[in-house]
Specification:
The complex is a heterodimer. Chain A has 15 helices and 13 strands. By secondary structure, chain A is an alpha+beta fold. Chain A has two domains: 193 residues, no CATH class; 185 residues, no CATH class. In chain A, α1 crosses α13, α2 packs across α13 and α13 runs antiparallel to α14. The two termini of chain A are 32 Å apart. By secondary structure, chain B is α/β, with parallel strands linked by helices. Chain B has a single domain, classed as 3-Layer(aba) Sandwich (Rossmann fold). Chain B is built from eight helices and ten strands. In chain B, β4 and β5 form a beta hairpin. The radius of gyration of chain B is 17 Å and the shape is globular. In chain B, 51% of the residues are buried. Classes of the chains: A alpha+beta, B alpha/beta. Chains A and B meet through α1, α12 and α15 of A and α2, α3 and α4 of B.
């Protein structure tokens, strides 16, 4: 053990109460930082998982066409020039099969499925509701969504076998008092068709669960009178985080607008991000207090140990040794505080994950959702280290600046 | 024998001012002094005459406003803090009036502290030397006592052992017996001089005690910042 570390340890144990105060502030700061990041990130990740499971990582929709402006020379001349004027979006995907085949060439694309969407009126025995029908190709759609896992009543196999079967959202089903096996009518463009509830799904996203009715693509074509083309192609990716880059490439190659989930859910993601940053800032106050407590403790030790500093300097200890002795003290408290803080953070995160908290609306959960991410611990330790070490540097440098002659003479300021 | 070998410590025309503005005082007014190896010097004089200020300058704990200091033939007056700190660790041992032990450490650890910094010896060698020094000051049985568990006389004896730890060529003592009773004063002074003479070290001590001063090889009285 280095002489400086040995001295630092002994100085630390001599001021137990003050050091315990600094230590508890550090533990509290790190622990709370971990806990708040785990809960806010947990809800954010759960929201992303929910939204990716329903609407996929990317949507390929409207066709993009360059528009040209033509100018003709005057005086009866035939001379004309054409200039690119802007972009024109043609609604929907006219050739979904071609698009899906082309998507297979993109290495990050894991699956793609066509979806035909349209507004409808759902007529049940007691009530009518406006909704949207989603015509899907089931096997392909299951590869780009979690629809199979979102079934809460009935069975997806029943839907697979029933040509006029439908999957209906839980909120809509409750409103219309429909259960599995009941029949209802979908009305669109003046045309009515009867369907049977094959299963009821629940995503947890209220806007989806009260609005969407899934039917087979062929049925949707007939209902919406759209024999070809689809509204969009839903795409699943191996690496969801690369969706923005992939969407730019896909849009360039396929000449269809490609919207990544980050852009689609921008407002919610910004809200979660703001919440996470805001809670991190709030909790950083605790680490700031830890830094101030450390500053206070070290400043007190410097005052009390001026004679020891003079002794050390008279024995050949350099200014940097004195700085190191005080920084070691801060470092030891920080290391112990960070370790205990992480343990406290992990245990409280675990405890909170069992706390009942029924939420539905943007996702559905019965308990607190937490995220176990090593980076929360790294960020918590880094924040505490920054605060504590900056706070320690001032008294440590002050101690190093003390002149041994002044101290011995009793004139040290 | 060359001068640098004979004299462990020399200073020439040392000036030192203390305080600022109207309170600025010319404490040392051109003091010259030299100390040979194996000799014990006493600097005596009334309070405020500049004895301790001179001692701190000689011990490189303070910087002179004028004049030169040589430690073992090396000019130290214009060197930087790092060189002066290194010279203190290697060539100078201090004994202060108020013991100045580090109270959270045992007697053994206090004596080992300068050796650990110098790093010349291995840990077992340091431990052996510290034990031997503490035995020679009569504290062989109390090596593991904390500073707070030792009496004033014992603390000062540990301070003597600590000053000798790195075998420095110069021992500087500022009223080493000033805080002790007669019996302990004699004990500490005898120890200091005996061990220093055995090792050929120059001892410079500042004292108010005429009996102690009389027993030194040379006494230099000071008044108003000058030797008289």
């Amino acid at each position: 053990m280095s002489p400086n570390l040995r001295i630092a340890l002994r100085f630390l144990t001599a001021k137990k109460r003050a050091m315990l105060m600094s230590l508890s502030c550090t533990v509290l700061g790190v622990g709370l930082f971990v806990l708040t990041q785990a809960t806010t990130s947990g809800f954010e990740e759960f929201f992303i998982k929910t939204i990716l499971g329903t609407d996929g990582a990317m949507r390929i929709e409207d066709k993009i066409q360059d528009t040209l402006r033509q100018m003709t020379a005057g005086g009866g001349s035939d001379f004309q020039i054409s200039q690119k004027e802007g972009l024109k979006y043609i609604e929907g995907v006219e050739e979904p099969k071609l698009i899906i085949n082309a998507l297979k060439d993109f290495s990050n694309v894991s699956a793609a499925a066509p979806v035909l969407r349209g507004s409808i009126l759902v007529r049940a025995d007691f009530k009518n509701e406006s909704a949207q029908v989603f015509g899907i190709s089931l096997e392909e759609h299951l590869k780009v969504s979690d629809l199979g896992r979102q079934i809460v009543q009935g069975d997806i196999a029943t839907f697979r076998e029933q040509p006029t079967g439908a999957l209906i959202g839980r909120v809509l089903a409750d409103r219309l008092q429909l259960t599995v096996g009941n029949s209802f009518i979908l009305e669109a463009l003046g045309q009515r068709s009867r369907y049977t509830v094959s299963a009821i799904y629940e995503t947890g996203v209220a806007d989806i669960d009260k609005m969407r009715v899934y039917v087979h693509l062929t049925e949707a074509r007939s209902l919406l009178k759209k024999p070809s083309g689809v509204t969009f192609v839903q795409v699943n990716l191996f690496d969801k985080d690369r969706a923005p880059q992939n969407s730019i490439q896909i849009q360039e190659v396929l000449k269809h607008s490609a919207k990544p989930w980050q852009e689609r859910e921008k407002s919610w993601l910004s809200t979660f991000r703001a919440l996470r940053i805001s809670s991190a800032i709030t909790v950083s106050v605790f680490t700031l207090i830890a830094g101030l407590a450390m500053f206070n403790t070290l400043a007190m030790i410097v005052l009390e140990k001026t004679k020891d500093i003079a002794i050390l300097r008279s024995m050949g200890y350099e200014r940097r040794d004195i700085t190191q002795i005080f920084l070691w003290q801060a470092g030891i408290v920080l290391a112990i505080g960070a370790f205990l803080g992480c343990v406290v953070g992990a245990l409280s995160t675990l405890g909170v994950s069992y706390m009942p908290l029924p939420i539905s609306g943007i996702f559905k959960t019965e308990t607190f959702v937490v995220s176990w991410n090593i980076w929360h611990y790294v960020e918590a330790i880094a924040t505490a280290a920054l605060m504590v070490m900056i706070a320690s540097l001032i008294p440590a440098r002050r101690a190093a600046r003390l002149e041994p002659g002044d101290i011995v003479r009793g004139t040290a300021q | 024998m060359a001068d640098s070998e004979k004299f462990a410590l020399r200073c020439d025309n040392l000036h030192r001012y203390l305080g600022t503005g109207d309170a600025r005082v010319h404490v040392l007014k051109g003091v010259s002094f030299e100390a040979r190896r194996g000799q014990v010097y006493a600097i005596v004089g009334p309070s405020g005459c500049g004895k301790s200020t001179l001692l701190y300058l000689l011990g490189l704990l303070d910087q002179p406003d004028g004049g030169e200091i040589e430690i073992n033939g090396h000019k130290m007056s214009n060197t930087d803090d790092l060189a002066r700190t290194a010279a203190r660790g290697e060539h100078i041992g201090f004994v202060f009036q108020f013991h100045f032990l580090m109270l959270e450490f045992t007697a053994l650890e206090n004596v080992m502290m300068p050796m650990r910094k110098l790093g010349r010896l291995t840990l077992p060698e340091m431990t052996d030397r510290a034990h031997s020094l503490l035995a020679s000051v009569g504290l062989g049985e109390k090596t593991h006592r904390l500073g707070t568990q030792l009496s004033g006389g014992e603390q000062q004896r540990v301070a003597v052992a600590r000053a000798l730890a790195n075998q420095p060529s110069i021992i500087l003592a500022d009223e080493p017996t000033g805080n002790l009773d007669v019996k302990n004063s004699a004990l500490v002074f005898d120890l200091l001089t005996r061990l220093a003479k055995e090792n050929g070290q120059a001892v410079v001590l500042v004292t108010h005690n005429p009996e102690i001063a009389q027993r030194c090889d040379l006494t230099r009285p000071m008044r108003d910042g000058l030797f008289v």
